[in-house]
Amino acid sequence: MRLELSSEGRYAIRALVYLAGHPERLSAGAISSETAIPQRLLARILADLSRAGLVESKAGRDGGTRLARDAACVSLRDVVETVEGPFLVTQCIMESRACDGSKPCAMHEAWLVAQRALLAELERYSLADLAASAGTITAPLSLEVG
What we know:
Radius of gyration: 18 Å
CATH architecture: Orthogonal Bundle
Helix content: 40-55%
Structural class: mainly alpha
CATH topology: Arc Repressor Mutant, subunit A
Order of helices and strands: HHHEEHHH
CATH superfamily: Winged helix-like DNA-binding domain superfamily/Winged helix DNA-binding domain
Number of helices: 6
Number of domains: 1
Largest sheet: 2 strands, antiparallel
Strand order of the largest sheet: 1-2
Shape: elongated
Distance between the termini: 47 Å
Low-confidence stretches: 138-146
């Protein structure tokens, strides 16, 4: 069994971890070159992250992108579910039908437990944790509003 993120999911995490270590606004070009994310794909990802309230972007001479919230307040689960959608088991493993609690199969409870465990682990890690582990923190992580 392979449990993998899409390219967009991996790139979103990479970009957000980089932004977590840089509180100033950064251009898409700078983010792209520092994180090896193709600029066209980065633009789409940043637009999705902006709509979700994870980053804020400003156009113009003093523009750029930065985190919209403190990195310590954004969990890995927030990021993954923003880009990949909610983590749900929707197809029954044992039978050819949708999976729900109304008529659970033999595997239903085991998959629910595994799903809860995975989500709990993703919730445990913040962007600040990941940035600290990656060594990308160059300044305090708290953001000033204004």
